[in-house]
Amino acid sequence: QVQLVESGGGSVQAGGSLRLSCAASGLMSSTYCMGWFRQPPGKEREGVTIIGSNGITTYADSVKGRFTISQDKAKNSLYLQMNSLAPEDTAMYYCAARTFLCSGTLTRAEFRYWGQGTQVTVSS
Question: What is the mean pLDDT of residues 42-62?
Answer without folding.
Answer: 97
